Amino acid sequence: MTESPELVTYRLEPALADRDDGTAMVAYLTLNDPDRRNALSDALLDQLSGLLRRAGSDSQVRVIVLTSSHPRIFSSGGNLDAFADDRPTITKYEGLNRFPNLFRTLTEIDKPIVCAANGDVLAGALGIALACDLIIAKSSIRLGCPEINVGAFPFMISALIFRATGRLIANELMMTGRLIDAFEAAAAGLVNKVVDDAEFDDTVRQWVAGIAVKSPLLLGMGKRALAATRDLPMDSALDYLQAQLALAFTTEDLAEGVRAFKEKRAPQWRNA
């Protein structure tokens, strides 16, 4: 029996360069199907979802980084061969839950997830990137939704694009299929930071290290609160957030953070 190819690789590295004691790790999940430009096949999506859950359940992992092994492409998006094959429609329909389930997984994991966009982020891959918490992009990459050019439409990822940028920009990307460079994407609110290619890896590590020293407990509470309140009316959101702040006051990490700040020392998080 032939083993399934490793379409997503998983490796752990110390999150802090000066602390290799295994207590603060970063999980790197690397899309690894370069011959097909990391097309989002069913097999790749299944492996990615499984590895995300693995990283999410590992108490030593502080930050998750999603990146690519391809020298120029993060991912070309959905598998076009699957769009036009002769499988029965019901068979294709059964697999449609992979994208929304992956987006939900990225949102529901308590740990910060950084998309290290080291290549072009296209079509469905743009949805994956936008479902992450932060996006760092190489200055040389392009982003966009070219699906309309092959007679498709980015139905599933439209929900994420509309939550990341304005309606008119979102419509332009989806209706014209135009690709934009990293700087235009940053101006539109689609990426956090654009970095020169030569400085990209170091910048990603710096961001990861900066996040890793924060309280894992409070980061997790904060991420859940953001997801829960993003689409609520203001009054409902404020009520929910007040309850979360009250809960935060009961944690040892909040008190420890204040003590460490006053004593000018690094905090010792309770659940680290």
Folded structure, characterized:
GO terms for molecular function: enoyl-CoA hydratase activity. This protein has 272 residues and is of the alpha/beta class. It folds into two domains: 8-212, 2-enoyl-CoA Hydratase, Chain A, domain 1, CATH 3.90.226.10; 216-263. It has twelve helices and ten strands. It has helices at residues 42-57, 80-83, 89-94, 98-108, 124-131, 155-164, 167-176, 182-187, 200-212, 216-229, 234-248, 252-263; strands at residues 8-14, 25-31, 61-68, 73-75, 113-117, 120-122, 134-138, 142-144, 179-181, 193-195. It has a six-stranded mixed sheet, with helices on both faces. It has a four-stranded mixed sheet with strand order 4-6-8-9. Helix 1 (42-57) links the parallel strand 2 (25-31) and strand 3 (61-68). The mean pLDDT is 91.
The portion of residues assigned to helices is 40-55%
Low-pLDDT sequence parts? none
From the N-terminal CA to the C-terminal CA, the straight-line distance is 42 Å
Number of domains: 2
- The total of beta strands comes to 10
GO molecular function, one term: enoyl-CoA hydratase activity
Keywords: Lipid metabolism, Lyase
Catalytic activity: a 4-saturated-(3S)-3-hydroxyacyl-CoA = a (3E)-enoyl-CoA + H2O; a (3S)-3-hydroxyacyl-CoA = a (2E)-enoyl-CoA + H2O
InterPro entries: ClpP/crotonase-like_dom_sf, Enoyl-CoA_hydra/iso, Enoyl-CoA_hydra_C
Reconstruct the topology from this structure:
Elements: E1 8-14, E2 25-31, H1 42-57, E3 61-68, E4 73-75, H2 80-83, H3 89-94, H4 98-108, E5 113-117, E6 120-122, H5 124-131, E7 134-138, E8 142-144, H6 155-164, H7 167-176, E9 179-181, H8 182-187, E10 193-195, H9 200-212, H10 216-229, H11 234-248, H12 252-263
Parallel strand pairs: 2-3, 3-5, 4-6, 5-7, 6-8, 7-10
Antiparallel strand pairs: 1-2, 8-9
Helix pairs in contact: 1-4, 4-5, 5-6, 10-11
